[in-house]
């Protein structure tokens, strides 16, 4: 594509990537062997790297993907496993032109496997520090609560997070929620978000991916100031106007949406509708090891399907800097 060099060279900010979603089949098998972890024996997909990679080609839904995502991450055991995984992502992101990355992680599932909160945070945070030091890439960790687990599990984690002082220390920069969208109550984290909002903690939420636009309005009602995915915002023009007015960033993941069958093709992702309505969005990878596409692949997929002009790309890049959760000094460096 004639704009490829330009798109590759655009300074990028990533706002929607799950560090556990950066575990490749190769790394899953390598860490399983090294850590003595048995992969599920009742699913032929876990026979080899190749069968697992092949299974990733045909996810039928968000929950079908989540089944593999939550099983795969069981190979993470030691602090260094978490650090190495984060580092591998930052290296790749750096080569795709990412200058700033805000990354999710899911403590609850690791804790349920007996890994202490402190080990998970220390490992991921070590990877972040290394990226800042060696690549000059700024990073922020966002802790995610999981919707498929009982709310009591999230409450326990929230208490632990508050007691750790990790927010005050800047180790954890914000909170989010993710996992199954349709099914659990839309407002299941109402109490946690009310408390976090009182403390001025930055809040985001996965909404409007498989769920309709009311999942987005509920997330905003609970205090989220950013929406992860958010493609179903277009179902509600009034809500869309409000998001444009209030600078609510949609962290869109085009290839993820296709792979999880939320849309038939990237052309269906409402990039032009968002641009026309003045809704700010960024373009992101979500779970690059599972969807076979890192951030630059997602930028290229958007270009192929929507053919943005250089001016429009500049708007996308500028909005993704302006809506990053960083200081004005860092924004000025990135612009
Ligand atoms: N949606 C919800 N939960 C997730 C996702 C997603 O796209 N990726 C990892 N956890
Ligand atoms: Zn996600």
Structure description:
- With 335 residues, the chain is of the alpha/beta class.
- It has helices at residues 4-9, 25-35, 49-55, 62-72, 79-95, 107-112, 117-135, 151-164, 166-169, 190-198, 213-222, 237-245, 254-259, 271-277, 288-291, 295-306, 310-322, 328-334, and strands spanning 12-14, 98-105, 138-146, 174-178, 204-207, 226-229, 249-252, 281-283.
- A 4-stranded parallel sheet has the order 1-2-3-4.
- Helix 12 (237-245) links the parallel strand 6 (226-229) and strand 7.
- Helix 5 (79-95) runs parallel beside helix 7.
- The model has no long low-confidence stretch (mean pLDDT 98).
- It binds hypoxanthine and zinc ion.
- Zinc ion binds next to loops.
* CATH homologous superfamily designation: Metal-dependent hydrolases
CATH fold label = TIM Barrel
Describe the largest sheet.
4 strands, parallel
Number of helices: 18
Q: Which regions are unreliable across 5 or more consecutive residues at pLDDT < 50?
A: none
Roughly what fraction of the amino acids lie in strands? Answer: 5-15%
- What do the pLDDT scores average to? 98
Q: Could you give the distance between the termini?
A: 25 Å
Which architecture would the CATH scheme give at its second level? Alpha-Beta Barrel
Q: Which ligands are bound?
A: hypoxanthine, zinc ion
Tell me the count of domains.
1
Kindly provide the name of the CATH class: Alpha Beta
Overall 3D geometry? globular
SS elements, strand count: 8
Order of helices and strands, N to C?
A: HEHHHHEHHEHHEHEHEHEHHEHHHH
Give the class from helix and strand content and strand pairing. Answer: alpha/beta
Roughly how many Å is the radius of gyration? 19 Å
Helix content: 40-55%
Q: What strand line-up does the widest sheet have?
A: 1-2-3-4
